[in-house]
Design goal:
Elements (H helix, E strand, L loop, with lengths): L5 H12 L2 H16 L10 H36 L11 H20 L2 H12 L4 H8 L3 H23 L4 H7 L3
Helix pairs in contact: 1-2, 1-3, 2-3, 4-7, 5-6, 5-7, 6-7
Length: 178
Amino acid sequence: MFERYYRELLNFLARKVGDGDLAADIAQESYSRVYAVPDRDAVAEPRALLYATARNLVTDHHRRTATRQQVEVAATDDDEDRDTGMGPASGEPDAVLAGRQRLAAIEQVVATLPPRAREAFVLYKLDGLSRPEVAAQMGVSVKTVETHLEVAMRACQRRLQQLDGGAPAAQKKARGPA
């Protein structure tokens, strides 16, 4: 049933993102997520579910792109303002690669978060909403938003610690000084 919407969805996505390959990737991810729904055969409006999923993925893509651009602009501004004294330049290939790897790792973590934690994280960190604004938009309490943000931040922190090759701070404290 869902397959009959593929070409239509692909055209819709190509208009939204302006890139046929990216549109195909988003369409594939949309189908993947819809097929992961346990009772997808019971969905009254399969086309609506497919399009809603695709629109959310496009929104996520635009947010990630905007965040990357902000990070790159901030890094460029820091390079221009930085004293040319000691320490590695952030424009050095190793520093750039490390920064990109960290950003990609965070994107992967955010993509695997539970949906409500991901939504709270994106609204708070990427869209810049306050916790009460996030709560109002999600229709939950501020305490619930704080819980979702805590889950997201801990997941990001764990992943960055893995990248840095270090144990979580609590484990380091338990072992004592090195």
